[in-house]
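A reminder from the course coordinator: this example appears on the midterm review sheet, so study it carefully.

Given structure:
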């Protein structure tokens, strides 16, 4: 992913897909094939097929998700909060138009309702056409409710209506001045806190601490002004070029307090199998921070 303020580059004309992570470094994929590209009401989109990552999609020139490594992101974004809740039944995904977060939420046997609020209908249609390996039919599950619209408006309306959720997953594009900018600000986060019921928790991505240190620090500090418990956690995501941060925020739940054995036992109890990344030891280990992150997030 790249910073939103950077200009959108023209589509490449060769079979080499170049991802500039910042103005000074990036990576490339040779043998890439463009499957579809265009512009929606909100953003430019591309879907590529690559030898390394399989199918992937970009929005406004920034990589969003890829078949080969999306499980690292989606499993951690969903199961860290979900396994700390005794029986999550109602979940809200803001963003998540590729369907990966909904897919993981639907693994939990007590889930009755997964509301996906995606601003750009074209993203969902792209996923349906090209990214079946990611959503795996999640949009067609009867427990899934798809709403096309602004997540800010949906959450405000849900607060006014007295709705509650056990889990809120903010599966968004980067912070900045784009469509998602308001969804990282304190008023929206406070509305999300209002929607959380009991031992509910919210998760979102923070970014790359190597090249987005100030963004990561600022988001954690912002969460701490809204929620009683905020736990950042980190993992390596190849598509995003290195170490990547997520955070879990709650009024009651502390995911760092859950042991590896407790997480593994809960996975067995819920009958959740076939995960490719997340397990009890991974859960516990991701909250360990090297010294530079401790200093950044102090």
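Designed residues:
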């Amino acid at each position: 992913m790249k910073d939103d303020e950077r200009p959108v580059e023209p589509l490449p004309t060769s079979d080499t897909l170049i991802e500039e992570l910042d103005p000074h470094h990036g990576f490339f994929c040779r043998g890439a094939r463009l499957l579809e590209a265009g512009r929606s009401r909100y953003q430019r989109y591309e879907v590529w097929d690559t030898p390394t990552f399989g199918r992937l999609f970009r929005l406004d020139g920034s990589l969003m998700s890829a078949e080969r490594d999306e499980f690292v992101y989606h499993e951690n974004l969903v199961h860290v909060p979900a396994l700390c809740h005794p029986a999550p039944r109602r979940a809200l995904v803001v963003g998540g138009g590729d369907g990966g977060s909904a897919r993981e939420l639907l693994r939990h046997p007590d889930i009755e309702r997964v509301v996906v609020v995606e601003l750009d209908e074209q993203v969902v249609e792209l996923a349906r056409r090209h990214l079946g390996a990611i959503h795996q039919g999640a949009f067609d599950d009867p427990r899934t409710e798809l709403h096309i619209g602004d997540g800010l408006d949906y959450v405000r309306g849900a607060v006014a209506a007295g709705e509650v959720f056990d889990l809120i997953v903010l599966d968004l594009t980067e912070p900045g001045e784009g469509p998602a900018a308001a969804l990282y600000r304190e008023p929206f986060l406070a509305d999300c806190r209002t929607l959380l019921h009991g031992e509910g928790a919210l998760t979102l991505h923070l970014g790359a601490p190597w090249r987005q240190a100030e963004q990561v620090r600022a988001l954690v500090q912002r969460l701490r002004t809204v929620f009683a418990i905020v736990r950042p956690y980190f993992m390596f995501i190849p598509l995003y070029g290195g170490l990547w941060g997520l955070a879990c925020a709650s009024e009651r739940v502390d995911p760092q307090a859950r042991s590896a054995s407790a997480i593994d036992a809960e996975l067995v109890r819920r009958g959740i199998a076939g995960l490719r990344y997340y397990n009890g030891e991974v859960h516990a280990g991701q909250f360990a921070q090297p010294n530079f992150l401790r200093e950044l997030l102090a």
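The CA atoms of residues 117 and 154 lie 8 Å apart. The first helix runs from residue 70 to 82.
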